[in-house]
Design brief:
Layout lengths: L2 H26 L4 H17 L23 E10 L6 E6 L3 E5 L6 H8 L6 E7 L5 E4 L13 H9 L2 H10 L15 H15 L3 E5 L7 H13 L3 E5 L3 H4 L4 E5 L5 E4 L2 H9 L11 E2 L3
Parallel strand pairs: 3-7, 3-8, 5-6, 6-7
Antiparallel strand pairs: 1-2, 1-4, 8-9, 9-10
């Protein structure tokens, strides 16, 4: 028997025993009736909530992304702009690439990511996805109104059906003890872990990540980085986490003046971020705007 279940049984017996004593006292003195009714209500409420879920051994957090195959060209940008945040640019992203969207705050990186997720009303130009693409979005705000009021295990069970498998999946993300906790009461890091788990279970082959490591602890961040190493799909991410970005294959940088550049590796991207006014002279930095 797991420790959580043993504690539940001990508490249920204590509440039941207390209720029986209070009922005996109420039978002898009607002044104790209110206390007896309160004790009975507490016991009934506790029993109705039920015992904790079956124990699952804690495991090291391990993320598995297994996105299905998609066409060679995953995304095509044609004269794309979002409002007046940046100048129209054109580019293509291919299957298996890890592309970081970088640049100063306020230049429109998250707006571009939202446009890829189909959520930008100010989009100009065309964004076209290749056939057989399935897009999943990780949002740094973890705003999931459809999860509000629902327990973690129920959210995961939507995908896995079986409760034991759902508990096992939560345990891999260090969320076993939060299984019966409602989504809106989770910490930022716990919400991020659950979000990543749901992306994994959905089987997307294009992942859009908005500051994915912001609310993660070190272990969870490392788990995400390891998962993306083995992910058979395409990743497009907005991030200021240089450790996370170091694993990416190329970068699209948006400058304060709205210019958009392709930068082919991490070291050059760091140089561009440190001296953005010299980006146009940076070796191998390719302008994507006309």
């Amino acid at each position: 028997m797991g420790d959580d279940l043993k504690r539940w049984n001990d508490e249920e017996r204590r509440l039941f025993h207390h209720m029986k004593i209070m009922k005996q006292r109420a039978a002898q003195n009607f002044k104790n009736a209110t206390k007896a009714n309160g004790a009975e209500s507490r016991w009934e409420k506790f029993v109705k909530a039920g015992p904790p879920p079956p124990p699952v051994a804690d495991q090291q957090i391990f993320v598995r992304f297994t996105g299905a195959d998609s066409a060679r060209r995953v995304v095509k940008f044609e004269s794309v702009a979002v409002g007046d945040l940046f100048m129209p640019f054109s580019d293509e992203i291919h299957f298996g690439e890890r592309v970081g969207l970088i640049g100063p705050n306020g230049t429109g990186k998250t707006h571009l990511l939202n446009a890829l997720d189909g959520k930008s009303e100010a989009l100009a130009g065309d964004i076209t996805f290749g056939p057989r693409t399935s897009v999943g979005m990780f949002n740094q705000i973890n705003d999931r109104p459809e999860y509000k009021g629902r327990q973690c295990v129920d959210i995961v069970r939507d995908k896995l059906i079986d409760e034991q498998k759902s508990m096992g999946a939560l345990a891999r993300y260090g969320l076993r003890t939060n299984a019966k906790q409602e989504f809106q009461t989770l910490s930022g890091g716990q919400k991020a872990r659950l979000e990543i788990l749901m992306l994994e279970l959905a089987g997307h082959n294009v992942l859009l990540l908005d500051e994915p490591t912001d609310n993660l602890d070190i272990e969870s961040s490392e788990a995400l980085e390891m998962a993306l190493e083995g992910f058979e799909g395409t990743v497009i991410a907005v991030s200021h986490d240089r450790t996370f970005l170091a694993r990416f294959s190329r970068f699209i940088m948006i400058t304060d003046d709205g210019a958009v550049y392709e930068i082919p590796d991490f070291e050059l991207a760091l140089a561009g971020l440190s001296e953005p006014d010299k980006l146009s002279t940076l070796r191998l930095a390719k302008p994507l705007t006309a």
